[in-house]
Automatic annotation (TrEMBL):
Family the entry assigns: Belongs to the leucine-binding protein family.
Transmembrane intervals: none
Name assigned to this protein: ABC transporter substrate-binding protein
Classification via Pfam families: Peripla_BP_6 (PF13458)
Alphabetic keyword roster: Signal
InterPro entries (UniProt xref): BCAA_transport, Leu-bd, Peripla_BP_I
Keyword Hydrolase assigned: no
Domain Leucine-binding protein, first and last residues per copy: 27-360
Length: 401
């Protein structure tokens, strides 16, 4: 295996080769259709902040050197308004009209897969994060060629979430809630298998379409089941509506897992203080970070990014680092040449070592966090499993009393 490593957070070394496209003065462009507005938009600007920081750091260190010349990187980001068809149109436009050299994709599987299909059609390297990798693989059973995913798997998320509950005080009875999206179906089945393997009993199992607003029947069933544990596999807005119904019916489980809702920065605004004590799964744990992580963490904190979005942003910083290293290894910006070299590389990044397997995924570790705080404004997640000093609090304070 060839190994290409960044020498520091800001500099890239060992550059050689001849660019296949563009002159020595032309920027190397990464196009990005991203949810900057619409229901998924809030907070996405911080992913751009992190990626742009990576671009700026590399450019300030001399850019990407190809055959003795230096070329700058640039990002071209456009808002898809949280609309899947717009992702398709914008990705095609970035390729055909803007002639970008590579692409970043939006978050969440339904959106990222829409862009990936276009990247595959036109043979352009396409990098994503914040889209669970099992759903990404399932969306194209024949396998991806040009789409590459740096994130965690649904299986690892479920394993970590369930492992963190094994020693907790509960009757091990679970009320499960899940939506019918691709992610929801995949995660539902993964959680069921993991729960049963670890001796938990599923006593209520409600499914519903995205954007459901009436959860009364599902919560009534869960409350009657006697479950001490609630696991809600829902997108953020649905998760907020669901936890409000918990409170309305005085359903106060000892453990409340919201792996798709409480894993992001939207949670305090959507759930308010009802969400204090809810559990989510996070990435970029302190023990999993690479060189330059401390500096990036400080930079993102100063920019006002909440903890979950610092983590998401870090992975896009890492993707910029990886793409720059791939250009160096290929000795070219030619999409096919860059794509061919990607699976041969292991690149040290702020997210730790990144290596894409023959399934076009690079899996990153996850941990369980619990939301703390007394107001929506001061809510923040803290790691509780693996335990690094902060123990799980049960029952969730937001639902108790």
């Amino acid at each position: 295996m060839a190994v290409v490593a960044t020498t520091s957070l800001f500099a890239l070394a060992g550059c050689a080769g001849d660019a296949a496209t563009g002159s020595s003065d032309d920027p190397i462009t990464i196009g990005w259709s991203l949810q900057l507005s619409g229901p998924i938009g809030p907070g996405s600007e911080y992913m751009v902040t992190a990626a742009q920081k990576a671009v700026d750091d590399i450019n300030e260190a001399g850019g990407v050197h190809v055959d003795g010349t230096s070329r700058p990187l640039e990002l071209k980001v456009i808002d898809n308004r949280s609309e899947v068809p717009t992702v398709t149109d914008q990705t095609r436009s970035l390729i055909l009209e803007d002639e970008v050299d590579a692409l970043f994709g939006p978050v969440i599987t339904e959106f990222s897969v829409a862009g990936a299909a276009i990247a595959e059609q036109y043979s352009i390297p396409y990098f994503i994060s914040s889209s669970p990798i099992d759903g990404f693989r399932a969306a194209n059973p024949s396998g991806w060629t040009y789409a590459w995913n740096l994130f965690s798997s649904e299986k690892t998320q479920a394993e970590t979430a369930v492992a963190g509950m094994v020693a907790a005080d509960s009757n091990k009875k679970v009320a499960l809630f899940s939506d019918t999206s691709n992610d929801g179906v995949t995660q539902h089945d993964t959680y069921v298998a993991e729960l049963e393997t670890n001796g938990f009993e599923i006593v209520a199992d409600a499914t519903f379409p995205l954007n459901t607003t009436d959860f009364s029947a599902a919560v009534t069933e869960a409350k009657a089941s006697g479950a001490d544990i609630a696991i809600a596999i829902t997108f953020p807005v649905d998760g907020g509506n669901l936890i409000k119904e918990f409170k309305a019916q005085q359903f106060a489980p000892k453990i409340a897992q919201f792996p798709k809702s409480a894993d992001g920065a939207l949670w305090p605004g959507i759930a308010g203080t009802l969400g204090v004590g809810a559990l989510g799964t996070g990435t970029w744990g302190v023990e999993d970070r690479g060189e330059g992580a401390e500096e990036l963490d400080a930079y993102m904190t100063d920019a006002g990014a909440p903890v979950p979005l610092i983590a998401q942003g870090a992975h896009y910083y890492a993707l910029v680092q990886f793409y720059a290293a791939a250009i160096e290894a290929a000795g070219s910006t030619d999409p096919a040449a860059v794509n061919d070299v990607i699976p041969t590389l292991t690149v040290d990044t702020v997210s730790g070592p990144v290596h894409f397997t023959d399934e076009n995924v690079s899996e990153i570790p996850v941990y369980t966090w619990q939301w703390t705080g007394t107001t929506a404004e001061d809510m923040t997640p803290v790691q509780v499993f693996p335990n690094i000093g902060t123990a799980l609090v049960t029952p969730p304070p937001g639902l108790a009393g």
